[in-house]
Automatic annotation (TrEMBL):
Residues 180-350 form the N-acetyltransferase domain. Keywords: Acyltransferase, Transferase. This is N-acetyltransferase domain-containing protein. PROSITE patterns: GNAT. PANTHER family: ACETYLTRANSFERASE, PEPTIDYL-LYSINE N-ACETYLTRANSFERASE YIAC. One of its GO terms (molecular function) is acyltransferase activity, transferring groups other than amino-acyl groups. Coiled coil: none annotated. It comes from the Bacteria.
């Protein structure tokens, strides 16, 4: 776009309406209106109201842990970018996939009124990244909604795909194959259930960019599974043939949107926390049987559907979830900066 570059300034409450207009323009442009998602996704008007509440709340409670910048003139916001500083506590399972200290930029935390003005996002990002480096955060996690016309822009800035979030609306599941039995696991099935959740975790850590596995991973997964089997709200399923367990799946209900979830996600829903099929049993519809059984439980509970996250680097899992009808909502991308730059730019004492 031609013309003078709009000034960059911190977000204030007076600019929120203009920011929301830019968000609606961007999201409306990025969300295919002729796709099936329009029939089951959370409406844009509802998502806008949710975002407004978050923005107004953050101005009063975020303090120095968040940074919100806008580029625009009086009464307009051409582009905006919001980042939140995250320090993962010891014992957090997310440490297996993310650095201990990073900036988080959600799918609704950035936008541009016109894709031709994407260079303004680069200017905003440069300031946000410098702020993060000064605080010692040498990585950023950025969510890009599926179908967004700025995805290539962020890839050009060095972001790489990390985690994909997808949804299967109620009634869209494929029927279970014959010859398999799916049942809920109980405390007596602890060893079988632990086997599948650990197998999934170890498989993920073999992907090149997810090589780090916390030293207490096995013990943590075992403890978590034991708690899940004792919790009636958590669902642990086993798929069997002739009494032999071929795969497992664990899930739990989400009554409303968590701060980490895409705002387009319908709720309530069931979140698939873990799923694994024995390599020798693949191709027999084991995962399809597990998903079909979970979808039945979701319907009984009045849930809108099933929600899952998976690693694009796990090529087999990506193909499997897509084949089962799960539709991508967004993909979290990660950029890790040179640690030498982090040391050079960090503000002492922070």
């Amino acid at each position: 776009m031609s013309g003078p570059t709009p000034p960059i300034q911190p977000l204030g409450s007076a600019q929120i309406p203009a920011l929301l207009d830019t968000w609606a323009t961007h999201r409306g442009r990025a969300t295919p209106r002729d796709s099936a998602r329009a029939a089951w996704g959370r409406p844009l008007v509802e998502r806008r109201a949710l975002l407004e509440g978050v923005l107004r709340g953050s101005l009063h409670g975020a303090g120095e842990r968040s940074r919100a910048l806008v580029a625009g003139r009086v009464g307009t916001v051409t582009a905006y970018l919001i980042a939140h500083e995250v320090r993962l506590p010891r014992g957090s399972g997310y440490r297996a996939y993310a650095p201990d200290h990073f900036l988080s930029i959600g799918g609704d935390d950035w936008g541009v009124a016109d894709p031709r003005a994407a260079d303004l996002l680069a200017d905003l990002y440069a300031e946000i990244a410098a702020w993060g480096l000064a605080r010692g955060a040498d990585a950023q996690l950025l969510a890009i909604p599926d179908g967004d016309d700025c995805a290539e822009f962020w890839l050009d800035l060095g972001f790489a795909r990390q985690d994909r979030y997808a949804f299967l609306p109620r009634g869209a599941e494929r029927p279970a194959p014959c010859g398999l039995t799916v049942r809920r696991a109980g405390p007596a099935d602890l060893e079988r259930a632990v086997h599948f959740t650990l197998a999934e975790a170890h498989h993920h850590h073999r992907a090149p960019i997810y090589a780090f596995a916390p030293p207490d991973l096995d013990a943590t997964r075992r403890r978590d599974m034991a708690e899940n089997l004792d919790n009636p709200a958590t669902i642990v399923l086993l798929a069997e043939a002739d009494g032999v367990a071929l795969g497992g799946l664990s899930a739990f209900p989400l009554a409303g949107l968590g701060g980490w979830m895409p705002s387009a996600t319908p709720t309530p829903c069931l979140y698939i926390d873990s799923a694994f099929v024995e390599p020798t049993a693949r191709g027999r519809g084991v995962l399809r049987a597990l998903v079909a059984a979970l979808a039945d439980l979701a319907e009984q509970r009045g849930a809108c559907g099933l929600f899952v996250t998976y690693l694009p680097a796990n090529r087999g899992a990506a193909r499997a979830w897509t084949a089962l009808g799960f539709q991508a909502l967004l993909t979290v991308h990660q950029r890790r900066l040179d640690p030498r730059a982090a040391r050079q730019h960090r503000t002492p004492g922070i």
